[in-house]
Amino acid sequence: MSTAAGEMTHHDHHHHAPSGLTRWFFTTNHKEIGSLYLWFSFIMFLVGGSMAMVIRAELFQPGLQLVEPHFFNQMTTVHGLVMVFGAVMPAFVGLANWMIPLMIGAPDMALPRMNNWSFWILPFAFMILLGSLFMEGGGPAFGWTFYAPLSTSYSPDSTALFVFSIHIMGISSIMGAINVIVTVMNMRAPGMTYMKMPMFVWTWLITAFLLIAVMPVLACAATMVLTDKYFGTSFFDAAGGGDPVLFQHIFWFFGHPEVYIMILPSFGIVSAIIPAFSRKKLFGYSSMVYATGAIAGLSFLVWAHHMFTTGMPVGAEIFFMYATMLISIPTGVKVFNWVATMWRGAISFETPMLFAIAFVVLFTIGGFSGLMLAMTPADFQYHDSYFVVAHFHYVLVSGAVFSIMAAAYYWLPKWTGHMYDETLGRWHFWCSLISVNVLFFPMHFVGLAGMPRRIPDYALQFADINKIVSYGAFAFGLSQLIFLWVVIKCARGGERAPMKPWEGAEGLEWTIPSPAPLHTFETPPEVK
Amino acid sequence: MAQQHEKYYVPAYSPWPIMGAIGLFLIAFGAAHTVIDMSKEIDGWGSNVLWTGIAVIILMLFGWFRDQINESLAGMHSKQLGNSYRQGMTWFIFSEVMFFSAFFGALFYARFISVEWLGGASNNAMTNEVLWPAFEAHWPLTLTPGGIESGSMGWMGLPLYNTIILIVSSVTCHLAHVNLEKNNRKMLTTWLGITVLLGCTFLYFQVAEYIHAYQDLGLRLDSGVYGNTFFMLTGFHGVHVTLGTIMLLVMFLRVLKGHFTPDNHFAFQATSWYWHFVDVVWVCLFIFVYVM
């Protein structure tokens, strides 16, 4: 992902470019900031992944083996936070930074200095969050959803650090989203009309809107937790007239659109890769755009499906059940379009395509288990079980993370100027594919059999399956080191990549040299 | 899209954002430790870090805006860049709208759902009977289920004056903008100056109202969900008015220095938008927090 080698030759004649580390601290360039985001996200992926390894090691056998329950809770909490706010979201912002200006023919992001700011506050936010793990009493241990009163009456002293780190992550996301939305609306090359934009740009435009709409709501929830815990307010305390359920409403009003924030850009990536390797145009482009919009619109009306068992009037349960099921229609349109794009295409199976196809299949499995969870009466059985864990890891790991891998392989030649090692890439793919299913598929079974999530111990009858799951987890974790190896190898050298390494690829990003020079499209291209 | 292309200005490497990142880090880290120390009633170093962070951010703002203003005065900003700024500000205000919406949502939830239900409404007769049999739902919640008593804030007097002040200030701010566009500098200065003064007056009255609430009414941040929503909503609004007043003051000083032209005054426009937004929030506050 680093283009350091390729760029050295260019920034010589770029006036007063600082050298060494200062260059990365002071940069306003969308490609450099994109690389920073992507590297940061990968580091966080490894950090959050290590925590998952701790969780799976503890769950390898029934009984308490390795860690204290309180530490286990911190691991599940911080694993979730790191993966959501540190790995998946920054990876998408990094891809947006790198690719959106190239795809729409813009010279850079619209607000380059703010772009730098929105990146550099992120590492600090995670320093605060991860640092709180080492405080007396430990770090956040109430789940990434920080439900009150776990996060208020029963939370560790360090909760204020958690709250303020969430605030910074939110500020970063909002600034990043404003940058994306303004870039897309204001910086398109002449002739690049909205309905000519690549799907990745479309999905990110809608994602950016969702981010600006819901990150402030998360800030509100976190602020109320802070005041409830430290300033004696009782938003979430019935004795003062409040209600812990209020927390869940506010949190999930953020949380459900957040789910789509983490998957819509994936849709865009897959919609770029599948046509390229099927050597066909994307089937049903405009229906893809409308489906994305519909998913985003519906995402504001379904939040309480996370709360079926919390207690709600029956009318509300039914409304949220049907609204949730409605989402499967635009999602089905998308899956249909991807399959129809491949239909009778001249398909070749390079690593990006492998990951994209795996995405379609495995994301659909995650979608179907989501549909099961959407049914209120069934959800009373599944709620808070490992079935839920299986569901959202199918959409987030074999969904979002796989699409990010696909994107990395697809655009690495453009970023580094070298082809990645195809053999290693395929090894990475097959190891990941097999292990991710060994890891998450059996979770459906233990979940349906009644194993609760977020508990460090379990009943004996779940022992065999948990052992298999843990083996899958270790294998999946190790497989990602192959990816690290591929990226480093690709950044350092390899076969020269041509301007357009993929025969069937389309878009402006393939009309510039590989590696992409530091400054591109300073005069906008004409789009016909 | 413009037909003939003006070059879009992409700034060179800048030290300000990373300084802002460090400042924000110190603020968050310091504020968190201040809060933790307060809860343990110890005197820690948290507030020192917090104030250092605030100082760093203020320095950063001076540097960043100085660069920005110099670039603008040097004519480096194209029309397209102006559009980026305006759109960026619009989306920022939208995010602020969502922030306040969430707190208003909490207010409505507390008022129409949680307090009602604690009083036995809907199918919650047993909740009331078993947990707080003496509790009767009422709003403003001057006696919580747990037994905290407080007064409630009426809308006559200071809140009403403040409403009038802010609405008038929105008008004066608009008049300043109109005169800027007509290049009528004298009227611009006058109206803008009046707007700043009205902002300060509002803040002064707001502080007086808080003192009145704490000392005379016994209405505090921790007096149950009525006090919570009252102080959180008016408090965050007050912070925004403070920020807006500072922005207006900066605009006033820049106008005195001769900045802004009828067709290049993004900073002024953004400040004016922000001020109108803050006013709209207040009108909602006045209706939903004070009157109703």
From TrEMBL, chain A:
Alphabetized PROSITE patterns for the sequence: COX1, COX1_CUB
Protein name per its UniProtKB record: Cytochrome c oxidase subunit 1
Sorted UniProt keywords: Cell membrane, Copper, Electron transport, Heme, Iron, Membrane, Metal-binding, Respiratory chain, Translocase, Transmembrane, Transmembrane helix, Transport
NCBIfam families for this protein: CtaD_CoxA
Functional description taken from the UniProt entry: Cytochrome c oxidase is the component of the respiratory chain that catalyzes the reduction of oxygen to water. Subunits 1-3 form the functional core of the enzyme complex. CO I is the catalytic subunit of the enzyme. Electrons originating in cytochrome c are transferred via the copper A center of subunit 2 and heme A of subunit 1 to the bimetallic center formed by heme A3 and copper B.
Molecular functions (GO terms): cytochrome-c oxidase activity; heme binding; metal ion binding
Transmembrane spans: 36-57, 77-98, 119-142, 162-187, 199-226, 259-277, 289-308, 320-340, 352-374, 386-412, 424-448, 468-488
Keyword Transmembrane among record annotations: yes
Pathway annotation from the record: Energy metabolism; oxidative phosphorylation
From TrEMBL, chain B:
Protein origin, superkingdom: Bacteria
EC number: 7.1.1.9
Residue ranges annotated for the Heme-copper oxidase subunit III family profile domain, each copy included: 4-292
Cited Pfam families: COX3
Assigned keywords, A-Z: Membrane, Translocase, Transmembrane, Transmembrane helix
Record keyword Transmembrane present: yes
Transmembrane intervals: 12-36, 48-67, 88-110, 160-180, 187-205, 225-253, 273-291
InterPro entries, per the entry: Cyt_c/ubiquinol_Oxase_su3 (IPR024791), Cyt_c_oxase_su3_dom (IPR033945), Cyt_c_oxidase-like_su3 (IPR000298), Cyt_c_oxidase_su3-like_sf (IPR035973), Cyt_c_oxidase_su3_a-hlx (IPR013833)
Subcellular location: Cell membrane; Membrane
Keyword Translocase assigned: yes
PROSITE patterns (UniProt xref): COX3
A Gene Ontology BP annotation from the UniProt entry: aerobic electron transport chain
Class of the enzyme per the UniProt entry, highest EC level: translocase
GO annotation, cellular component aspect: plasma membrane
GO molecular function, one term: cytochrome-c oxidase activity
Membrane protein topology class: Multi-pass membrane protein
Family under the similarity heading: Belongs to the cytochrome c oxidase subunit 3 family.
Record's protein name: cytochrome-c oxidase
Organism: Pseudidiomarina indica
